[in-house]
Each structure stands twice: as structure tokens, then as C-alpha cells.
Write a structure and sequence with these properties.
Blueprint: H1 11-26, H2 35-58, H3 60-65
Length: about 70
């Protein structure tokens, strides 16, 4: 058993803390520095999914190199 120097939390107090944690989780977080870039990436992904059918027939260099591009080869 843990030492009595740390008494177990009172269950009611713990419940209140959990409710506060949930409220903090739901609060809209402020925009980070990367936020705009992430939104752009999401948009690009949606676009790529739309182009998917055409891309599959196409192949080509961009298709072969994949998402890393030339950088991955260096």
C-alpha cells in the first residue's frame, strides 16, 4: 500500500478535476505557426485524391518518384 503521506484523492474532487480537463480539451486551441501550412497540405491531399483516377493511368516521372521527389535520391 502507498504511504499514508499521500492520502487517496477524494473521489468527488477527482471527478471535478476530470470535468475541468474535458473543458480544457474542448477549448479551441490558438493557431500555431504551422497551422496555415497544415491546412494547405490538407487541401492538397483532397485535390490529389480527386486526381487519383487520372494519375493512375498516367505514370510519368513525378509518379515514379513518389512524394519525396528528387530530394530522396540525394
Amino acid at each position: 500500500a502507498p504511504s499514508p503521506a499521500f492520502p487517496p484523492d477524494h473521489p468527488r474532487r477527482r471527478r471535478r478535476a476530470r470535468r475541468r480537463a474535458a473543458r480544457l480539451r474542448h477549448r479551441r486551441r490558438h493557431r500555431t505557426r504551422h497551422e496555415g501550412r497544415r491546412a494547405e497540405a490538407r487541401q492538397g491531399r483532397r485535390q490529389r485524391r480527386r486526381e487519383g483516377r487520372r494519375r493512375r493511368q498516367q505514370g510519368g516521372r513525378r509518379h515514379r518518384e513518389g512524394r519525396g521527389g528528387r530530394r530522396r535520391q540525394m
